[in-house]
Amino acid sequence: MTPWIRPLTATTEGGPDTLGAKAHGLVLAHRLGLPVPPAFVVTTDACRAYLRDGRLPGGLHRELAAAVARLEAATGRAFGGPGAPLAVSVRSGAAHSMPGMMTTVLNLGLTTGATARLAAETGDPAFARDSRRRLLTGIATALGADPAPGDDPDRLLRRIRDRRDGRPFPDDAPGQLTLALETVFSSWHTPRARTYRALHDIPHDLGTAAVVQAMVFGNRDARSGSGVAFSRDPTTGANTPYGDVLFGHQGEDVVSGTATTHPLPALADREPAVWQALRAALHRAEAHYRDACYAEFTFQAGTLWILQLRPGRFTSGAAVRLATELADAGVITRREAVRRVTPRQLGHLRVPRLADPAGADLLTRGIGAVPGVATGRIATTADRAARLGPGTPVILVRPETSPHDLHGLAAATGVLTARGGPAGHAAVVARSLGRPAVVGARDLTVDPGRGTVTAGGRTLPEGTLLTLDGTGGHVALGAPPLTTGDADGRLDRCSAGRTPSPATPHHVIPPHASPPRTPPWATPPPDRKDTPVATRHLYLLRHGAADALGHLTPAGERQADLTGRRLARLPVDAVWHSPLPRAERSARILATHLPRATVAAAPELVDHIPHVPADPPPAWAPFFDGYDAEEAAAGERLADALTARFARPAPAETHEVLVTHAYPVAWLVRDALNAPRPAWLGLSCGNTALTVIEYRDTTTPTLVLHNDMGHLPTDLRWTGFGPGLHP
Q1: What is the CATH number of domain 354-482?
Q2: Where in the chain is the domain with CATH 3.30.1490.20?
Q3: Is the dihedral of CA 355, 359, 361, 364 positive or negative?
């Protein structure tokens, strides 16, 4: 029988799909000789079994006891027994990075007795109490108890008991570990995790691994701390270490954005030995990856420990600069440098900025965390941003962001926070979503209850128009003039032979520029009875086949190409695609055969659950398990926006291709048939199978084709369906 647990050493085998990306990175760190605290991983197989059966799988407890015994032997400490206490962290770690979307619990094993022994061992009762409080706060937060900053341990224990239907928080170390694993695995299905996966095209059935690791205490003393580091600047690509550090704090304080951090080079002055060790570790990792890298680290009493290691994720200009400099240095070939840079990244090299910050009506200034300019109306909560976002450009303004704000971050055009640094939650998530962001605006006060923001002696209500510059960190009132900087001339080599995308990011329309042409069918027709309304032809298709990372496979690229060839004989006016990468790539490929068509993203086409039935069919019940009312309502709003935009006649004859996902196609077909809302569940489609709907005035829609694969050879049909017989 395949074990549920694997030790994390230089000899551990297995890929990210089994170990999770976090554990896989720690195995590499061991192989590179970097300092890593002893750890083991509970695999994604165990998570999937837990989510399927509602309990931890058989045999796991026996494996946990053996794995913990190995940690005790490696550290010389006892997990819940007499002697020097062993505390561990339990960190979620899926195959794909999902920053802050799932649960992490620190300081497990600090029972009442272990906390007293830790205080006696260190001679620092305040440190021991702080570590125990952090454990209880983490568990209470993971259980949805919403602890307050000033809660003492007794109040936290009451909150936990209330959330556990009267069951107290275990005061034995193995019981705490069991609860933490169940909490981490359950967090795979939280609304924020589902939303993040939908936004980033990550499958919902992968599950997460859980890394159990001996604690290193960044809050131990003045010579301890935590931080995050990139081997190069992720916003510019400059070849210098970049990141955040906090002294006397644990890592959750850095990545949460609740504290204003110090720039990473502050380590050089406070802890020069840690700084040198960190730089050496980043250099070694970059040499292995042949790419920039990212690390999370803690140092205790002047000793460095690496807690996470992976390749870096850079914005467009930084990605191009990095690829060019690595090619210049001979680390990668010119051909590989070109492959690493997408046409969209090349198109976004010339990032907009405020033309004259000194002449603008500046409200505040913070740290530019994600380059680009965004103009929109102030929203002080994620819920308000999500309500306004589909029709109104919004700037989400928060004291700091948390994983609970993801739906607002996704809806916003830009992000502004009063606290946090360039590697905190707001910056990391905004960077992954491509949203310009300014963080750490220290004179900014946000009052969500009143719906106001205050800075520079001025108080502004929600709805006020702001412009933020994610490069310079400036935040101005209104819509001041913009300029577009020139790309670094050294980078032109990377774009040779490629056709760049439009220079301005899709979510930014400079206020002083002429807006792009709006096709006549993208706005409601005039309210006139004599307005002639012609046929609107919608050609719907699910994206091409994709791998677990959301990238088109060779088969998926062939499918998209063959679909484009089939559509080439039609007078296609526009190709609309979901913002997710697999749909955009499919759209770009098929559009090469449609020279007169415009290509653009339509947020309504994003992958989403359009309707959750009150009584789902038994086969679908596990899928909807844990899908709460808030998440269901958000899906319904997206579905309504989808039909409002596309499922109606047009004032002129139009032919539009919609490259989306299986569920939006099913919803549009259900709507055309005027079938009951739950009927979408039975209307699946294969990758790039063609569905055609026609809309005319005064008549019901006509479903011309559904799931037609005539343009695909036999070996490319029925991908995206489960195993079984297909005609």
Answers
A1: 3.50.30.10
A2: 1-215
A3: positive
CA distance 702 to 695: 7
Closest CA to 719 of 553, 569, 606: 553
Residue ranges of E strands in 120-253? 208-214, 225-230, 242-247
Cα–Cα distance measured from residue 26 to residue 186, given in angstroms and rounded to the nearest whole number: 23
Q: φ and ψ at 344, to 5 degrees?
A: -65, -40
Rg of the chain's alpha carbons, rounded to an integer? 26
Instruction: Please give the CATH topology (third level) of the domain spanning 1-215.
Output: Dna Ligase; domain 1 (3.30.1490)
d(CA 623, CA 610): 14
Residues contacting residue 722 through CB under 8 Å, at least 6 positions apart: none
* Terminal C-alpha separation, the chain: 37
SS (H, E, C) 281-331: HHHHHHHHHCCCEEEEEEEECCEEEEEEEEECCCCHHHHHHHHHHHHHCCC
The pLDDT tens digits of the residues spanning 658-689 come to 999 999 999 999 999 988 888 898 888 999 99
State the pLDDT confidence band at 622, using cuts at 50, 70 and 90: low
The answer to whether 43 and 49 are in contact (CB under 8 A) is no
Chain-centre distance for alpha carbon 568: 36
Out of 52-56, 517-521, 542-546, 614-618, which region has the weakest mean confidence (pLDDT)? 517-521
* Mean pLDDT to the nearest integer, 142-163: 90
In a 10 Å sphere around its CB, with 0-12 CB exposed, 13-18 middle and 19+ buried, how is residue 148 labelled? exposed
For domain 218-313, which CATH number applies: 3.30.200.20, 3.30.470.20, 3.30.365.10, 3.90.180.10? 3.30.470.20
Residue 266: both structure tokens together: 């502050």
Domain boundaries for CATH 3.30.470.20 within the chain: 218-313
Q: What is the pLDDT of residues 230-287, one digit of tens each?
A: 999 887 788 889 899 999 999 888 877 677 789 999 999 999 999 999 999 999 999 9
The CATH number of the structural domain formed by 520-716 is 3.40.50.1240
Q: Are 424 and 396 in contact (CB under 8 A)?
A: no
* Pairwise CA distance, residues 339 & 351, whole Å: 22
CA–CA gap between residue 359 and residue 82 (Å, rounded): 67
Q: Quick one: pLDDT at residue 474? A: 95
